[in-house]
Amino acid sequence: MKMITGVSKMCCDGVIQYLEKEKVSILIKDRHTCLDLNDSNMYVLKKGIVKVSLIMQDEREFNITYLQGPDVVSLYCDCLTQFRDCHPKIRIESEQAELYCISKEKFYKRVKEDANLQNYVNTYYRNRLKLAFTR
Asked: What is the pTM of this model?
């Protein structure tokens, strides 16, 4: 499976700058651990590699892609589940991964207030849609 880096790097710089400016905490996760995407946090991969999968209704796992940091993992999962009845799964594939962790409420409030950050998020979604069409 092809690793996605160009699209995410281009769109992620503004988000990373915001997270560093806000001194958002960084989680360190070990290989083969999974993120809990049911909580109220947003995850941004700073360093490392993660595998994005969907758990289908019959509990089969469908691998979507591998993401290499930096990338806004939570936005990618939102793209996948917006119109589907399935559950995303994010598993760490590198020896370790560093992820920023911020509440979704705080992040989206900031997105609404900051035109530049809003542009990064919109560009992220637009580029992911383009990528899906090219596949």
From this structure: 0.77
* Domain 3-134 CATH (choose: 1.20.120.1560, 2.60.120.10, 3.30.200.20, 3.40.50.150): 2.60.120.10
Q: Give dist(CA 23, CA 72) in Å, integer.
A: 17
Within the chain, where are the H helices? 6-21, 73-81, 104-113, 115-134
pLDDT in tens, 20-40: 988 999 999 999 999 887 778
Q: Where are the domains of the chain?
A: 3-134
**C-beta neighbour count of 3 within 10 angstroms:** 11
Question: Residues 6 or more apart from 45 whose CB is under 8 A from it?
Answer: 67, 68, 69, 70, 71, 72, 73, 97, 98, 99
Instruction: Supply φ then ψ for residue 67, to 5 degrees.
Output: -115, 140
